[in-house]
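On clarity, I found the account of how folds are encoded harder to follow than it need be. Since the whole study asks how a given chain folds, the encoding of that fold should be made plain. For illustration, here is how one protein appears when written out as sequence plus structure tokens:

:::
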Amino acid sequence: MTAVLTVGGHRLISVRDGTFFMPLDFLGDEQAHRELADADGTVRLPVGAFLMPGDEPLLIDAGVGPGYPRPDFLTGGRLPGELAAAGVRPEQVRHLALSHLHPDHCGWVATKQGGLTFPNAQVYVARGDWDHFLEEGHSGPAPWIREAMRDLAGRGRVTIIDGERQILPGLRALPAPGHTPGHTVYAVHDGAERALLLGDSIYCPQQLTEADWGAASEVDPVLARRTREWLWREIEASRAAAVGQHFPGLQAGRVLGKEWQAVP
């Protein structure tokens, strides 16, 4: 089911590429698994992205793509169809902002055959992730994604983000490192209204109140925990709506009275 979040004059439409089957110990505590599990005991979280339609459509994250080699862990392939259902073709996307360069967030940047899924998009990624994954060669994006990103950068189609930065009108990049060195949270804003797109800095709402639940895929667990604690304070103090790319139902919520409440 598609979720739509309104932030002033902006609309954010959730689009789903596939499913993340969360292992029992992924968040370091079986309680997390029990709270998120379906009736059969399996945790099925979405692999999500967020579309801001308009004259120059913006997509935040790009799913895992089709044919992931471990379908028991990640599946993808739905993103183009979900975009079409929202009235946007991939070639219409003009801006692609990546929270980080793990495979389930950049998988549709290019196909295995080398074609660009979003041929007219400017791509935004933080320097910390560019250096870590593309310059230093740490495990992350598929080889064809690395090649495509380097080619795009050579043609001036990649914007490297250094620190906090206004990317576009109504969209600000906020450094949120730990999960990866350059992990980025994007703030959509219009006047006093604000929504935070959390990427993988927080996998599920429960992590906001359970600071010890850290994801197994974190590059720097200590820094990731500090980032989660900062985000909790930020969300609570600002009363901003917030949603992560793996939140159940891609449903945004707010922190009210120390509790997480879904935005209707």
